[in-house]
């Protein structure tokens, strides 16, 4: 099949490399507002360069991957659907939930599949965790702990436009909690602090946060995030039930140092970047998209899924700013 990529920055170029290695993909069509980015990707991974999204949609592509800036996501998703071309779009659907809901309404009933990029759903550990939970191996759940710790904060320009740590970082935890447990979040309480980069505080954001989520069956989920984890990129989940407990991410590249006498775990070089931690998951995610394009599977992460994680992020943002519990229904109806 022939796949188009809109946006050839860091993640777009990474997707181009991944797609170029998939057996299902015969050719790529690339475009970026910065022509040199598209040309560079074409030289490295192969593909035809066109000068606009319109030219890409007219180039006979079977599916499109949207890796452009967030502000461009709504228009590009709609353009793909209007052209009848299956769309893979990196999260988020849009910068705000209002825009995201508008996109959902605009594409509803079109019959064109859309997959949103939440790569943890394709990580082997999280896949195994979901199977264990849904298979009843843990019994009734009581506690979930989910962690995302970045090795260093992104630049000031990114922070200023990101929508805040809950929307650009924690949202991955929110999505994977929903997916692994099969439950919905009903209420949140969030706290945060700033003890690192001044520009994060100046942007009205926090660099380290904690959120307590109540799920619809009474299970408690604790989410921990930080922009400052000098040892590396740390993504983990613990799931505790009345029958058993399991963990995702307890492997030798875990960026955590044990000080227990005689303990050598973890013994490997710590993960230092999200692309390192989730290389296999990204490949599985885009393989799934080729199956969506081929019509052999339905979207494994819909716009509706992405919006649910977004409501949780909005609730946590409001909770942080107002120092109170916030229900999901409150932000959904605002």
UniProtKB/TrEMBL annotation:
Domain of life where this protein originates: Bacteria
InterPro entries: Gfo/Idh/MocA-like_OxRdtase_N, GFO_IDH_MocA-like_dom, NAD(P)-bd_dom_sf
Occurrences of domain GFO/IDH/MocA-like oxidoreductase (ranges): 126-243
Pfam families, per database record: GFO_IDH_MocA, GFO_IDH_MocA_C3
Keyword Glycoprotein: no
Domain Gfo/Idh/MocA-like oxidoreductase N-terminal: residue ranges: 1-118
Keywords: Oxidoreductase
Family matches, as SUPFAM superfamilies: Glyceraldehyde-3-phosphate dehydrogenase-like, C-terminal domain, NAD(P)-binding Rossmann-fold domains
Family statement drawn from the similarity comment of this UniProt entry: Belongs to the Gfo/Idh/MocA family.
Name of protein: Gfo/Idh/MocA family oxidoreductase
Organism: Streptomyces cinnabarinus
Species classification: Bacteria, Bacillati, Actinomycetota, Actinomycetes, Kitasatosporales
């Amino acid at each position: 099949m022939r796949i188009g990529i809109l946006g050839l920055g860091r993640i777009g170029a990474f997707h181009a490399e991944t797609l170029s290695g998939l057996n299902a993909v015969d050719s790529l069509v690339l475009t970026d507002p910065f022509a040199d980015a598209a040309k560079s990707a074409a030289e490295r991974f192969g593909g035809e360069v066109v000068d606009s999204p319109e030219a890409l949609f007219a180039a006979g592509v079977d599916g499109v991957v949207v890796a452009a800036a967030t502000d461009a996501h709504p228009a590009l998703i709609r353009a793909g659907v209007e052209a009848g071309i299956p769309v893979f779009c990196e999260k988020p659907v849009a910068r705000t939930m209002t825009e995201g809901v508008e996109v959902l309404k605009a594409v509803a009933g079109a019959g064109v599949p859309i997959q949103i990029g939440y790569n943890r759903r394709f990580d082997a550990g999280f896949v195994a965790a979901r199977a264990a939970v849904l298979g009843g191996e843990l019994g009734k759940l009581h506690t979930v702990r989910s962690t995302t710790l970045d090795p260093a904060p992104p630049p000031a320009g990114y922070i200023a436009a990101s929508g805040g740590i809950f929307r650009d970082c924690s949202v991955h935890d929110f999505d994977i909690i929903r997916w692994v447990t099969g439950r919905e979040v009903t209420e949140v309480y969030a706290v945060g602090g700033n003890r690192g980069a001044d520009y994060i505080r100046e942007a009205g954001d926090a660099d380290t946060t904690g959120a307590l989520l109540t799920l619809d069956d009474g299970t408690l989920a604790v989410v921990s995030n930080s922009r400052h984890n000098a040892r590396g990129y740390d993504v983990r989940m613990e799931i505790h039930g009345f029958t058993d407990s399991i963990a995702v991410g307890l492997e030798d590249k875990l960026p955590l140092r044990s000080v227990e006498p005689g303990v050598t775990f973890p013994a490997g070089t710590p993960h230092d970047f999200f692309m390192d931690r989730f290389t296999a998951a990204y490949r599985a995610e885009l393989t799934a998209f080729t199956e969506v394009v081929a019509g052999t599977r339905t979207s494994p992460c819909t716009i509706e899924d992405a919006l649910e994680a977004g409501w949780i992020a909005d609730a946590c943002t409001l909770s942080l700013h107002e120092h109170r519990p916030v229900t999901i229904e409150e932000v959904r109806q605002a």
